[in-house]
Design brief:
The protein is α/β, with parallel strands linked by helices and about 375 residues long. The protein has helices at about 20, 45-55, 70-75, 125-130, 135-145, 165-180, 200, 215-230, 235-245, 250-260, 265-280, 290-295, 300-320, 330-340, 345-360, 365-380; strands at about 30-35, 85, 155-160, 185-190, 205-210. The chain has 2 domains: about 15-210, P-loop containing nucleotide triphosphate hydrolases (Rossmann fold); about 265-380, Zinc Finger, Delta Prime, domain 3 (Up-down Bundle), CATH 1.20.272. Helix 11 runs parallel beside helix 13 (about 300-320) and helix 12 packs antiparallel against helix 16 (about 365-380).
Length: about 375
């Protein structure tokens, strides 16, 4: 385990989400709120801060909640608040409030080690299953709602990420949303609103988390990096990574942190490195070595790879039809060249296939085979 200075974890609402925060009435919060938006823009920290504020027992008035000083806030920070329930996959438990200090490494699945047979992609089916919220997880969380609150105030149930709910677990959650226990507030967080059951969406107040603009996103990153004193990155490199990640500052910062600590086994580090290699391959157009690209990227998050490919195809289409590049301006020259070479009808078909693949991106399917197929069809965009 890496030794780090003992700094308590704290959550702060990102500046570009302040307007969203200001629109929430903590004294009249709906029984269920659904926070949605792009990944890596601070939705989780926003949700945690909201949960903490709803449980805060500060005297109010001039005190802005969460006060970070009352007994409830201290219990929350150490993961001991009896009225907070975190419904997350096993791989995400390390993100919940706990006594684990910021920067310290922790096993997302606890200390228990199990053996599993790896599939043809080098990742175990068991590990993939741990990325889902099972019906057992949902039932365990819902059962705690049958009794009154311990502190006599609110009870908060955080579900993150909502798209990780298995269908049976989603139905279990839906029953509680239809008849929410008194004083219970559900905070649901998702990066894929399109994959949320309409019946769940209809029972929530939707909060759309906006991404930062170019200036504010980079300014926040530079401030975070300066506070670390250890992460070294040039302005051009920072801007390139920022654009490659679709303007997701939190994802960029986590990648740079993992890179600084040489934690090449970090999942986000693997995914961003793979996404950058994928973009290098896509930039080759008809000369792409799709077998090589698939070989060097398939172990990364399939969702991240599909997202990067989706943005790239959108830019190529935008360049072809309107000479505009939205997501990857650093690659604008290459994209404009490719936009003049592609067969538009093929591009539209491939874009549809990538969108369809995203519906099953978290399922334990043969990622490498799917990736090879998509990349091979990408090469064919430039052929008659």
């Amino acid at each position: 385990m890496r030794q780090t200075e003992a700094i308590p974890r704290s959550w702060v609402v990102a500046p570009w989400l302040n307007s969203l925060w200001d629109g929430i009435n903590l004294k009249a919060c709906p029984n269920a709120v659904l926070i949605h938006g792009r990944p890596g823009i601070g939705k989780y920290d926003f949700a945690i801060t909201l949960a903490k504020a709803l449980l805060c027992e500060g005297s109010g008035g001039a005190i802005k909640k969460p006060c970070n000083a009352c007994e409830a806030c201290r219990w929350f920070d150490t993961g001991n608040h009896p009225d907070f329930v975190g419904l997350v996959p096993e791989t995400h438990r390390r993100f919940l409030p706990s006594e684990v200090l910021e920067g310290a490494e922790s096993d997302a699945g606890g200390s228990k080690k199990t053996k599993a047979v790896k599939d043809d992609e080098g990742d175990s089916a068991e590990k993939k299953e741990k990325k889902n919220i099972t019906i057992e997880d949902a039932r365990s969380a819902i059962q705690t709602l049958s009794i009154g609150t311990h502190r006599g105030g609110n009870r908060v149930v955080l579900v993150y990420p909502l798209e990780a709910l298995r269908s049976e677990a989603a139905n279990t959650l839906l029953k509680s949303l239809e008849e929410p226990p008194s004083g219970t507030i559900f905070i649901l967080v998702t990066s894929r609103l399109d994959r949320v059951l309409p019946t769940i969406r209809s029972r929530c107040r939707l909060l759309a988390a906006p991404p930062p603009d170019h200036v504010n996103g980079l300014a926040w990153l530079k401030e975070k990096i300066a506070a670390q004193n250890a992460i070294k990155v040039s302005g051009d490199e920072l801007e390139t990574i920022f654009y490659e990640q679709g303007g997701a500052p939190y994802a960029v910062f986590e990648f740079l942190t993992a890179k600084h600590h040489q934690n090449e086994k970090d999942e986000l580090f693997i995914s961003i490195q793979a996404s950058r290699y994928l973009l290098q391959g896509l930039a080759q157009g008809s000369r792409i070595n799709w077998l090589d690209v698939a070989e060097k990227t398939h172990k990364a998050s399939f969702a991240d790879l599909l997202g990067a490919m989706q943005r790239w195809l959108a830019d190529v289409q935008g360049s072809s039809q309107a000479a505009t590049v939205r997501f990857y301006p650093k690659h604008a020259k290459t994209i404009h060249t490719l936009g003049q070479q592609i067969r538009l009808e093929k591009l539209l078909r491939l874009s549809k296939l990538v969108t369809q693949a995203r519906r099953h991106e978290n399922h334990p399917l043969a990622t490498r085979i799917q990736l090879e197929s998509l990349l091979m069809q990408y090469q064919q965009l430039f052929q008659d």
